[in-house]
Design a protein that fits this description.
The structure holds two protein chains of two kinds. In chain A, 40% of the residues lie in helices and 15% in strands. By secondary structure, chain A is an alpha+beta fold. A six-stranded mixed beta sheet of chain A has the order 7-6-5-8-9-10, sandwiched between helices. In chain A, strands 1-12-14-4-3 form a five-stranded antiparallel beta sheet, covered by helices on one side. In chain A, strands 2, 11, 13, 15 and 16 form a five-stranded antiparallel beta sheet that branches. In chain B, α3 crosses α4 and α4 crosses α7. The longest helix of chain B is centred in the first third of the chain and has 23 residues. The radius of gyration of chain B is 17 Å and the shape is globular. The chains are: A alpha+beta, B mainly alpha. Chains A and B meet through α1, α2, α6 and α13 of A and α2, α3, α5 and α6 of B.
Chain lengths: 740, 176
């Protein structure tokens, strides 16, 4: 826990924005230096030394060792004055925040405090400065104790005329800044009104000081958070800030579902992703067979979306192209019965990523179980309530998500709740969904934090699931976490093994990921795969709705297990091929027929799409040259000339241990070119193109974000929930971020 | 795009250099801030680094990413700065408490504790922790910047983790 908290905290430390004044100073000094160096290059070296001495040299904080300025100058130019002055004159803030504290026993203390609090609550401190320009009179009367330091600094400066000017300028530019966005700190200087004496301590410093004073002066045991802190702390509202004071408890009985605000404080630094290389181009002559497991996870798309919404590009390893493609629901023809749960659709089209190449889409839509024929569900929610879940986009969002899930269950289904990492143990015994209030009450009482008690979480969860086992039904554990898998079994391999053994008993596990900064995608994926479940990443309540309500049946009810795909390409027609995505799902050729090898599961109504880019024989687009000595062998291939290849799918029906086989040839031209089908092909192609661009665009040729947007826009179709429109927005954001 | 800009600046074009500095000053300053946890000191370091950038930009050979090279430069400036502080300024330090104008008050306080601890662990530890944890770099990238092998970084990260797990390293909230 400790190491984790150290790393996560370090990752979350965010540096303040640089002071524009200091920035300008640095820039001038550097430009001076730059001019000097380049002058030196051109002119004779001796002469250049003299040229370099300019006005800005005098203001520079640091000199070369060779130039000896007055030491007292250097002393003054340093910290005290600059720190004081440069951060000074945030007068409005200083007065608005500090005044109430010092007039605590004065005339209008209550009003003033409330005002300050509200200001801080409304927006970031800087904005409140701009809002409340101080009355000039107040400038001259800051509380005595606080301006001591500033006066000291000012009196030191009083002898130095030039420094004083500098200070005044700084003060002035600082004042300008409170009104308008400064382009240049020295531009549009206002007429001088006050000297360098009125230096005001900045808000944060004053706040910490003030809250310390309050504690010092009080006769009772007091802890205090000042208004500015309330604004600055990463809390959604004042109540949550107050909760930071030890011993304060704030309870809420009718909690409304909090939306998940984007937290700008967190960083992706602590999130862990498995590293993988993009699938290479393969020569059919060398390796005609491609084998992989299906992947119905969508976590990669939601994670990338979150990053892009925050104005950053996701890490390359966070982008798994197949998960982005499979995030969307495609209208591939559905299967007709639960017995043969797939109807594979194969579509061949031109590739937008390279002239002379073609795309082969393999689309599968799983059989859709109707609500009324859905099997009974026995769900155990295993929730992480460690301190790290204490963020609006973590535990509160998890709780809101679970509430949504309840709505999509049948009244006879049961739900139990187990928590770990905070207070371990069973929060709710298996309870039928018809007693909804009881379940909701238990959920809403969960609070993050507390001591790390016995972490038997996962075993307890499996015990409960086993005790309430529904034969022929769905027995599943939903693990909600922000990446802390401290569930009671420390060793990752052991944990995987445990989950795998439980899977044999018929109890499955899905992972719902929340929050960022500490998210361990790699482990979430691994656990879900071992537990025959899905790994999803929930960044917003809307995503929770998609995963837990709309796709409840597919997330919960498996219709086929261990689904593997194998494509054999025809060397007579295909020269090269490349599988787009599925890097982390690759299987060996011999694994395909081995029923002991685990693979991905498909839930009710899930669509899975795989895209191959192929280079037909004779195309100019070939990247690999013909091998000189294996010519004969190739010519001898017997493949028919009207097929690109042969598709095989292996799957097990739920509960069965022997796999079944589906086979389809891949024709040179698609048999069906219905416009709806081609629209789906276009859209999935655009998503795949986007994913590849985010990963660096090794194989996408001249494709640009513009092209992706155009393709996607031409293929949004009905888009009932706006997911495809959102995708277009996301591409625009990526484009903007990349341009920056 | 960046490369063309750098090449122009290397050729002596002051406007390009100013543009380059504008682009990267934030990175420099923020890293300097994380390095020392103190706004005014960070400004000093950032200014030093900006000047160093001016003098040594011509030495950048496009063999590594520009930002990696920049990090190396900031780190060396920060180290120089610290040495000069130790040499000259013993009498000036009492107000050195790391009060910062951080957007979050607890950041500065927590950071100061961590930095002090990391400094005790030995040379290179602080830089390693900052690059890997605060800047989110891979071990290989951090190794390239610090001029050591990837495995050295991994070892350092491990050592840091071992030491920082101790209770006194944990952050206490700002209001104590």
């Amino acid at each position: 826990m400790n190491e984790k908290s150290f790393e996560a905290k370090l990752a979350r430390v965010s540096a303040p924005a640089p002071d524009p004044e200091a920035r300008l100073r640095a820039k001038r000094a550097a430009l001076e230096e730059f001019a000097r160096v380049h002058a030196a290059n051109q002119a004779a070296e001796k002469a250049s030394e003299a040229v370099s001495k300019g006005l800005w040299d005098a203001l520079r904080l640091f000199r070369d060792d060779s130039s000896h300025g007055s030491t007292s100058m250097a002393w003054f130019v340093r910290r005290n004055l600059f720190a004081g002055v440069a951060s000074a004159c945030v007068v409005g803030l200083g007065i608005a925040m500090v005044w109430p504290i010092f007039s605590r026993y004065g005339e209008e203390p209550v009003f003033a405090t409330v005002q300050a609090t509200i200001e801080a609550d409304i927006g970031p401190p800087q904005e409140s400065v701009a809002l409340s320009e101080p009355p000039p009179r107040a400038l001259s009367a800051p509380p005595a104790r606080l301006d001591e330091r500033a006066e000291l600094a000012a009196s030191r400066a009083s002898g130095e005329v030039q420094l004083r000017k500098e200070a005044e300028k700084a003060a002035r530019s600082e004042r300008v800044q409170t009104n308008i966005e400064p382009k240049d700190g020295y531009a549009s200087a206002a007429p001088q009104q006050e000297g360098a004496e009125e230096i005001v301590v900045t808000g944060v410093r004053a706040k910490l000081q003030a809250s310390m004073d309050m504690k010092r002066q009080s006769t009772a045991v007091v802890d205090a958070i000042m208004a500015e802190d309330i604004g600055a702390l990463p809390d959604a509202n004042v109540a949550q800030s107050l909760q930071r004071i030890p011993g304060t408890t704030i309870s809420s009985n009718n909690a409304l579902a909090l939306p998940a605000p984007e937290s700008e404080l967190a960083s992706e630094a602590g999130d862990k992703f498995q590293h993988f290389e993009v699938n290479p181009l393969r020569r059919v002559a060398d390796e005609p067979v491609s084998t992989f497991s299906v992947d119905v996870d969508t976590a990669s798309y939601s994670f990338a979306r979150r990053m892009l919404n925050e104005g950053r590009l996701p890490q390359k390893d966070a982008v798994r192209v197949e998960e982005m493609v499979n995030y969307f629901d495609y209208a591939w023809p559905a299967a007709r019965s639960a017995e043969v749960p797939f109807e594979p659709t194969v579509v061949v089209s031109e590739s937008p990523w390279g002239k002379g190449k073609r795309l082969v889409h393999i689309g599968v839509k799983g059989y859709e179980i109707q609500r009324n024929e859905a099997p009974d569900a026995n769900l155990v929610l295993l929730l992480d309530v460690s301190g790290s879940m204490d963020s609006p986009d973590k535990l509160p969002l998890a709780v809101s998500s679970m509430e949504l899930l309840l709505g999509s269950l049948k009244p006879t289904d049961t739900v139990a709740i187990v928590v770990y990492a905070g207070a371990a143990g069973t929060v709710l015994e298996p309870t039928p969904v018809r007693e909804k209030e009881k379940i909701l009450g238990a959920l809403r009482n969960l609070t993050p934090g507390g001591s790390t008690a016995g972490a038997e979480g996962i075993e307890r969860a499996y015990q409960l699931a086993a005790a309430n086992f529904r034969k022929g039904g769905v027995n599943r554990i939903l693990l909600a976490t922000d990446g802390d898998f401290n569930v009671g079994i420390d060793d990752t391999e052991q944990l995987k093994g445990y989950i795998e053994r439980q899977r044999e008993k018929g109890i499955f596990l899905s992972v719902l990921g929340f929050g960022q900064g500490n998210y361990r995608d790699e482990l979430a994926q691994a656990l879900a795969q071992n537990g025959n479940g899905v790994a999803v990443y929930i960044d917003t309540l809307n995503e929770a709705r998609k995963v837990l309500v709309q796709e409840a049946t597919s997330s919960l009810f498996t219709i086929a297990q261990d689904v593997k795909l194998q494509v054999e390409f025809n060397p007579a027609t295909v020269a090269e091929y490349r599988l787009v995505g599925y890097e982390t799902r690759a299987l060996r050729r011999e694994d395909f027929n081995n029923d002991a090898i685990d693979a991905g599961d498909v839930g009710s109504g899930h669509t899975v799409t795989a895209i191959y880019e192929i280079t037909p024989v004779g195309s100019q687009a070939r990247l690999v040259d013909e091998a000189r000595y294996s010519q004969n062998r190739r010519a001898a291939s017997r493949g028919s000339r009207d097929e690109y290849g042969f598709l095989k799918i292996r799957y097990k029906l739920p509960g069965e241990s022997k796999s079944r086989l589906l086979e389809r040839p891949i024709p040179l031209a698609s048999s069906s070119t219905r416009p709806e089908l081609m629209r789906e092909v276009t859209f999935s192609t655009s998503v795949a193109g986007f994913g590849q661009l985010l990963r660096g665009g090794k194989f996408t040729g001249p494709l640009s974000y513009e092209d992706v947007i155009r393709q996607a826009q031409s293929a949004t179709g009905e888009d009932r929930f706006g997911y495809r429109a959102e995708f277009v927005q996301l591409v625009r954001k990526a484009q903007a971020v990349q341009r920056k | 795009m960046d490369e063309a800009l750098i090449r122009r600046a290397q050729g002596g074009d002051a406007t390009s250099f100013a543009e380059l500095l504008d682009l990267h000053y934030d990175t420099i300053y923020r890293f300097a801030w994380k390095w020392c946890g103190h706004a005014a000191n960070a400004e000093d370091i950032a200014q030093l680094a900006s000047m160093k950038l001016a003098t040594s930009l011509t030495q950048f050979r496009f063999q590594a990413a520009f930002t990696s090279w920049l990090y190396r430069l900031v780190i060396s400036c920060a180290q120089d700065w610290q040495r000069s502080q130790q040499r000259h300024d013993h009498d000036e330090l009492p107000d050195e408490e790391p009060m910062t104008e951080s957007s979050r008050p607890e950041d500065g306080i927590y950071l100061a504790q961590v930095l002090a601890q990391l400094a005790k662990l030995g040379e290179g530890m602080k830089e390693t922790a900052l690059l890997v944890h605060a800047e989110g770099m891979s071990h290989a990238e951090a190794g390239a910047i610090l001029g050591v092998s990837e495995s050295t970084i991994s070892w350092r990260v491990h050592t840091i983790r071992k030491h920082m797990g101790q209770p006194q390293a944990r952050a206490s909230l700002a209001y104590e």
